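A brief tutorial aside. Many learners find it easier to grasp structure tokens once they have seen a single protein encoded end to end. The record that follows does exactly this for XRE family transcriptional regulator. Read the sequence first, then the structure, and try to relate runs of similar tokens to stretches of the chain.
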Amino acid sequence: MRILVVEDDAMIADAVLQALRDAAYAADRVGDGQSAMAALSGHNYDAVLLDLGLPRKDGMDVLRHIREAGDAVPVLVMTARDAVAERIATLDLGADDYLVKPFDVNELLARLRAVGRRLAGQATSELVHGALSLNPGTHRARFGETECELSAREFALLQALVLRRGAIVSRENLETAIYGWNEEVESNAVEFLIHRARRKLGVSVIRNVRGVGWTLGNPPTRDP
């Protein structure tokens, strides 16, 4: 999942970004409302973490702009504004969740996992497509009868394929789901992660469609 963090406090933003990347999210950060609107117009995000007290344009105006543009991206507000009336107004304007500062980063990650389940159309804690199951809380994966723990980027790769519901995903889209703006991406990075995932779960977990991209595969069948 690719997340846009809209936060003007550099210390809070750095802590959130590090937690997101450790949890296998690709994360970008902007520090004001105008930059948030520009980022959203030029990139596709799976979720937005939005502060309300922003320079150049208030977070409520950013949220209003998102919804008036018809963008259904999940928006999780993280703010020091704790009045009940403010929470109600923000949720009624189109926010999906509301987190009051200071908050525990583990709670933020749990709420993002809930967003991931909704995006995948699932209610359980695991993301499932065919024979592949992913646990966002533990980064463990199961494919057929094989189970293992994945690195953050291995997990991000498989999660990107699961969330796209079996579609063929291009290299560019996989890189976008795995890496943020300031992270260097080597030319064979996707192939390396696919190789690692196949070593752990089996060569058939990811199928290559030559010249197009990659999709999830099926486990090998056993002889009767």
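Self-check: The longest helix spans residues 105-119. If you spotted this yourself, you are ready for the next section.
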